[in-house]
Amino acid sequence: MHEHTHLEPGSGYFLYHSIGLFPDKARLTADALAGFAQIWGTADDQAWPASLRLKERFIERWRHCIDAPPGTMTTADNVTTALYSLVGSLPDATLKGRRLRIAADCFPSLHFLLAGMAQRRGFILETVPLRPGEAWVRDEDFMARWTPEVAVALLTHVTSTASHRSRLEALIAHGHAVGSLVGVDITQSVGIIPFSAQRTDADFVVASTLKWLCGVAGAGVLHVKQRLLKECRPELRGWFSQEDIFSWNLERFRYAPDARRFDHGTPSIVACVASLPALDWHASQDPAALLAHNRELGESLVAMAQALKLELISPRNADERGGSIMLRLPDRVPAQTLLEALRANGSYADVRGQALRLSPGNLTTAEGIARLETALFDALRGHR
Ligand SMILES: Cc1ncc(COP(=O)(O)O)c(C=O)c1O
Q1: Are 86 and 224 in contact (CB under 8 A)?
Q2: CA–CA separation, 66 vs 84, rounded Å?
Q3: Nearest CA to ligand 1 atom 6
Q4: Cβ proximity of 297 and 11 under 8 Å
Q5: Bridge-partner residues for 182, per DSSP?
Q6: Which of 192, 323, 349, 381 is the most buried (most CB within 10 A)?
């Protein structure tokens, strides 16, 4: 890294699908954590009130970011646990003998979770396949044979393998017409592609703060629509699931009326605190400008792919895409060696198999793309 100190910081950073960056992230995160350390290291009785206020501020930022009504959001360690809390809260009458529908290009962790839960909760996990040779599950395939047998459908707003963006409104409307609950994983879209929980009418939403929102690991969230919330009885529960957490009468456990019912034991707040500077920064930005910058650089990456004769995995049409551009590397090119070559000129990307994932964000620049192109050109030529 040190040999690239002359470069604009982040100009060749293409990892927003993995970890987002914003100006001065390291210092602002350190300041937030120093403040948190002060709270926990001070000999008074204010540690919990101060910490819970910070957690609330995190939730409020999120609520505004995705247009979710008050009382409908809480935190989770990650997306997988958020989904576990939600599915684990649904009554047997909803799940037993019925189907949970998901696409084959969902985030694998969520499929692993649901496959494990299916047997015990007595539902059938129905995975809509990719068509041979295609990189994402088509919306029309997800909708085909989506019948009232489907108790719950989990949509991925933007996929992590192709950056394919689903038409949520149409899918959710279809799901509701047949009586399904419809949840959306917005992890790969939130912060770059506009999303409104109210406008889309999603029954629940799972996400994390790590990617385009530029936070840190461990700051997951769950949003549950009010009408569904009331019926949820989370299996993972504890004293923090109650309205009054100090109600300790063993016979009198009662779920909080709002999304706090998805809380359980003493909350882990540090990731929320460390992500607050990112959420504050994001809230101060013009979402249209963030997207326009991403789109402009995305088109440059598509042009670069054409020039280098690399196959585009992501949809060609920007309206069908999230913020990333995935490109297929020829089989003859060792992907890890290629990443090393990119790293050596200050370009940071990653691969899944032979798919090169490139996600330009607010710090990435046109100069960074020019540098990436040079490094890719040289690396590909070296493996002819
Ligand atoms: C679409 C999507 N969902 C979920 C996740 C992360 O899930 P978890 O927080 O459980 O690791 C990712 C991470 O890459 C993702 O791309």
Answers
A1: yes
A2: 21
A3: 79
A4: no
A5: 153
A6: 323
Q: Any residues with Cβ below 6 Å from ligand 1, and which?
A: 78-80, 107, 109, 156, 160, 185, 187-188, 208, 220
What are the strands, taking DSSP E only, across 197-329? Answer: 204-208, 220-224, 311-312, 325-328
User: What is the pTM (predicted TM-score) of this model?
Assistant: 0.97
If you take atom 16 of ligand 1, which residue's CA is the nearest one?
160
CA distances, 308 to each of 11, 122, 254, 355, 372 (Å): 21, 50, 61, 15, 11
The model's confidence at residue 382, banded by pLDDT at 50, 70 and 90, is confident
Question: Which of 193, 195, 369, 212 has the alpha carbon at shortest distance from 292?
Answer: 193
Q: Which two tokens stand for residue 354?
A: 């032979």
* pLDDT tens track for 82-126: 999 999 999 999 999 999 999 999 999 999 999 999 999 999 999
Pocket probe for ligand 1: among 159, 168, 188, the residue whose CB has the most ligand atoms within 8 Å is 188
Nearest atom in ligand 1 to 157's CA: 1
What DSSP assignment string belongs to 159-210?
-TTT-BB--HHHHHHHHHHTT-EEEEE-TTTTTTS---HHHHT-SEEEEESS
Closest CA to 214 of 184, 188, 185, 191: 191
